[in-house]
Amino acid sequence: MYAIEVLVAMLISWKDYLTRKFMKPPVGTVVGLAFTAEQVLCSVLRQKDGNVFWEVDASFSHHSWTKSLADFVKQHKLQGAPCYFALTAHWYKMHNIDRPDVADAEVFNAIKWPLQELTSQSADLIYDYADLPANVGGQKKLLVVALARQEVEKLSRAIFDAELELASVSIEEFATVELTPLRQDAIITLVQEHGEEVVLNIVKNRTLYFSRRLKGFENIGTFSEVELDMGIIDSLCVQIQRSMDYFESQLRQAPVKELLLKLDTQFTDFVSQKISTAMGIPCRSFTPNIECGDKLNFKMASFSCLGASYSHFVKQQSETADIAPKRHAEEQREVSH
What we know:
about 325 residues, alpha/beta, CATH 3.30.420.380, CATH 3.30.420.40, 6-stranded mixed sheet, 10 helices, 14 strands, globular, MSHA biogenesis protein MshI
């Protein structure tokens, strides 16, 4: 987060940056952006009375999105609102690498060299990593994401020019995790942006344990129920079962308890019912804990976009949960005195 802010501050004057930084934002309002292969998607979430509402949805073409976003922000009076953006797979590379045997504070610098061996030596990259909570045979692995510095600079500059506050940069694998229910049991989510690969995540306690992309389903939205039932759903079941087997046998985790689907097809409920019957596991449409505004529904939504912006409220909930026990302890001490 700090590194991103410094990068953006370098692109504009510090005076301009600080002016934007301390601009009074609209209360409880967050802007989410998702950069897909085809377009730039935008969603506006607002918190009211403890609930989160999805109020506005928009899409911009790549060739004019910077101006369109600036106009959109002015139209909806969003100046100063925190902006969270997520990238789809066309923008980055993901690698699993061995965790260096160094102190935690030194991990970031230590992974630079193995990462260079996996990518172009000449590429100027920005990278980040996440520790995986479960590993095969106790061998610690890192999930490392790398993307071109030039692209991040362009996106960051456009967001600040639109008078939004850049809060976070994410990728779709992690953005969609933010939308999952907070529960101990493992769940599988299958999420697909329009015309793209299916992202299969296995999640527990809103933490990513395993992720892979399912190729060959990019055109699933063009098939009828009859066509889906002629082998496509069976192929999905095979890929799901392989992921479950790996999760249970290799990562030594308890079985998955539920499947949540958000696929690029109008027949998601039909697919869910077929998968549930075939695999003997509850399967349903993926419905985040967000209230939809007029003429909006989750079937049309970009979950990368919604997840990126919803992470703002997830973080708030987490911070509140951390503060509550401390406050209770302080109250108990006051009573005892």
